[in-house]
Amino acid sequence: MHSTRTSAMKVAPEDNLVVALRDLNAGERVEVNGEVFELTQDVKSKHKFAANDFSPGEVATMYGVTVGQATQPIPKGGLLTTENLVHLSAEYGEPTEGMNWEPPEVSQWHESSFDGYHRPDGSVGTANHWLVVPMVFCENGNIQLLKEAMQKSLGYERRDHYQLYAQELAEACKAEKDLACIDLPEENSRWRDPLFPNVDGVKFLLHGMGCGETRGISNDLCGLIAGYLNNPNVAGATILSLGCQHAQVSILEEEIEKRNPAFDKPMLVFEQQKHKSEREMLGQAIRQTFESLQKANEISREPSPLSKLTIGMECGASDGFSGISANPALGKVADFVVGLGGRVILSEFPELCGVEQEIVNRCASPEVGKRFVEIMRNYEARAKEAGSGFHMNPSPGNVRDGLITDAIKSAGAARKGGSSPVVDALDYPGWVTKQGLSLLCTAGNDVESTTAMAGAGANLQLFSTGLGTPTGNPVTPVIKVSSNSKLADSFSDYVDFDTGHIISGEKSVEATGQELLDEVIEYASGRKTAKAMLQGRDDFLPWKRGMSL
Predict the structure, then answer these.
(1) SS3 state at 229
(2) How far, in Å, CA of 1 to CA of 189, rounded?
(3) Full residue range of the structural domain in which residue 352 is found
């Protein structure tokens, strides 16, 4: 733990890269762990400088792992940039050391519970949603018609301040008034009283898949939708199918059977090519959905042990502090949840590049380790075939904020998975079945990853961010955790929890993780609503394997 006066830090004692915790000036002398560094040039907050002289070809380390290779001489105290450092990660394969995990102290939560929706199969949801989803993009128009027809009547319509603003501007135009005099309202107008108060929402999903792509992609879509239907946060679904598409309802039913042979949720299927008219089909869909919602409303929240939580861990729009504050705090929550008997999902395989050996060493069995290596190498190979690679993963925003190689980004991103043993490695679109930490192969794309984790069974997601993102999910609360307090202030419409006090030295990672788990219980119980959900961010983006990194 660094003090409030600390200007820079090494994440691991053996690192030869140092992180600036504030803007540093050329010529400034900075002390880190008793060693003094004189900066040869300006180093912005979140960026890194050299802890020793580098020769071309010398390996750079951070978080205790290889994160890059020097391409030119870099003096001690010199700034690391994309011009003088390139991505490099260590080789990986068989375990190099044994796993010896000591579970954290979790006695303070032994009597804790969350108020959730209990399903007949024993799972517990943190929400109670109804889905309306197409099997193919051809039905998107009908999904929109159902949304327009039902949302207001059900009491879920939102009129946000932008709609109100546009309405006032339109009225001003009619009256030939000065538009500059019309101010944007400060607050959103929230939902009306819902017709079915125990149904948290009816979610109308849209996508551009189901036919035209490879059969494999269509089959993955069926698996993903099956996961959403089986998610404990979902009460049932209305399915619209055209009939002739690749993504057949029969494949969806097979995928549901794989995930849950005891599946008994209502699933209303309407195949347009079997109906005499679109009008007749949509009329039936509306009536039967209302009938099913009446039954879905009969269930209410009841106490549940924390072992029933399945939490997805995500990071997006990361910055140079993400791996120091927000992600380690998420990692503490991950370890606490595992210690309490729950499930945790770590995804985004491009952001595990560089820490593969560490993960292999954490695998609970050789079989799990081999499976992880197999999936990882296959993914990397397919990325290269598509003319890309993990080294291209950092975004321009990542680079501007100090994440200049994929290995630096990945080593920090992996910390949100904590330190517990890896009990399973799943390919997309997998379903989590084991207590503990499971790896799920997904793209590095934030929305594709959050979409996949909800489809794998996550009933709540923690999402760290350093630059800010509005990403949400239709069926799971997505709790935004900021890496720095500046973002928490500027992105307050979406940030739910701030870990910037770790950077300032006011609180430890351990204490912050404890506070965050207490907040998770509030969100899981419905006593707090994630801001992305309040803002209506129902992001749903199925992954097209081989077409997205």
Answers:
(1) helix
(2) 43
(3) 303-534
Q: Quick one: pLDDT band at residue 420, thresholds 50, 70, 90?
A: very high
- Mark which of 254, 277, 298 sits at the end of a domain: 298
Residue 120: exposed, middle, or buried by beta-carbon count in 10 A (0-12, 13-18, 19+)? exposed
How many Å apart are CA 389 and CA 150, to the nearest integer?
44
- Last residue in a domain, options 263, 298, 333: 298
User: pTM for the full model?
Assistant: 0.94
The beta-carbon contacts of 108-112 under 8 Å, at least 24 apart in sequence, are: 108/514, 109/306, 109/336, 109/340, 109/517, 110/340, 112/306, 112/521
* Residues 200, 183 within the same domain: no
61, containing H or E segment:
strand 59-62
- Nearest 5°: the CA angle 210, 216, 220 is 65
Q: From residue 205, give the alpha-carbon distance in Å to each of 259, 270, 472.
A: 21, 15, 13
In sequence order, the β-bridge partners of residue 305 are 113
Quickly tell me which residue has 């950092």 as its tokens: 394
Tell me, yes or no, whether 147 and 279 share the same domain.
yes
Q: Is 245 helix (H, G, I), strand (E, B) or coil?
A: coil
Structure tokens at 472: 């949400």
* 514's tokens: 């404890």
- Partners of 490 in the β-ladder: none
Nearest-angstrom CA–CA distance, 546 and 384: 10
> pLDDT digits over 326-376, tens only?
999 999 999 999 999 999 999 999 999 889 999 999 999 999 999 999 999
Look at residue 271 and tell me if it is in a domain: yes
Q: Where are the alpha helices (DSSP H) in 161-214?
A: 161-174
Residue 183 lies in a domain: yes
Question: Quick one: 182 and 308 in the same domain?
Answer: no
DSSP state of 10: -
Question: Which run of H or of E encompasses 261?
Answer: none
Please tell me the predicted confidence (pLDDT) of residue 385. 81
Residues 479 and 527 in one domain: yes
Token pair belonging to 122: 């024993």
The CATH number given to whatever domain includes residue 244 is 3.40.50
Three-state secondary-structure class, residue 437: strand
How far apart, in whole angstroms, are the C-alpha atoms of residue 488 and residue 502?
A: 13
